[in-house]
Amino acid sequence: MKLTYNIKIIRVGKIKNKYFYNASKLYFDRIKNICNIKEIIIKEVKAKNFSTIINQEGKNIINKIDKKDFIILLDEKGKLFNSIEFSKVIDNICTQQKIPCFIIGGSYGNSQQIKNKADLLISLSPLTFCHELAYVVLLEQIYRSLTIIIGHPYHNE
């Protein structure tokens, strides 16, 4: 079943580890079979000052946000959801004609400007993940959520 939903992911940096790349490609392709998904990769900023990196990457991310985007920022202090709750969040956003726009910041985190702009802060876990692994986990959870929405048996509960 193909949904008319649109999902957008903005993330900083390319996936350099081949295992993370292969896993992310697997779930990205599975998601494409269910709905439209767009990915925007922001180039990592090179600077000696962490604050400069975070702020410039933040500006670059904000330049890629559209008016229809419902901004969901991955943040360690964000709200935790189980998979059923997460699927309801995605479903509710999409049925309101908004586009869930997931943002994964770079290695040093997100600027306060992005945090202030976000409609929702979510955490994938109380644990901290490298941003490449966070991307894979996010894709798997988006895929799981979509299968819950369409009634596919991927999610066993």
From TrEMBL:
Transmembrane segments: none annotated. Keywords: Cytoplasm, Methyltransferase, rRNA processing, S-adenosyl-L-methionine, Transferase. It catalyses: pseudouridine(1915) in 23S rRNA + S-adenosyl-L-methionine = N(3)-methylpseudouridine(1915) in 23S rRNA + S-adenosyl-L-homocysteine + H(+). Pfam families: SPOUT_MTase. InterPro entries: Alpha/beta_knot_MTases, RlmH-like, tRNA_m1G_MTases_N. One of its GO terms (molecular function) is rRNA (pseudouridine-N3-)-methyltransferase activity. S-adenosyl-L-methionine binds at L74, G105, L124, S125, P126, L127, T128, F129. It comes from the Bacteria. It is found in: Cytoplasm. One of its GO terms (cellular component) is cytoplasm. The keyword Glycosyltransferase does not apply. Its EC number is 2.1.1.177. The keyword Transferase applies. Belongs to the RNA methyltransferase RlmH family. HAMAP family: 23SrRNA_methyltr_H (MF_00658). Specifically methylates the pseudouridine at position 1915 (m3Psi1915) in 23S rRNA. Homodimer. This is Ribosomal RNA large subunit methyltransferase H. It comes from Desulfonauticus submarinus.
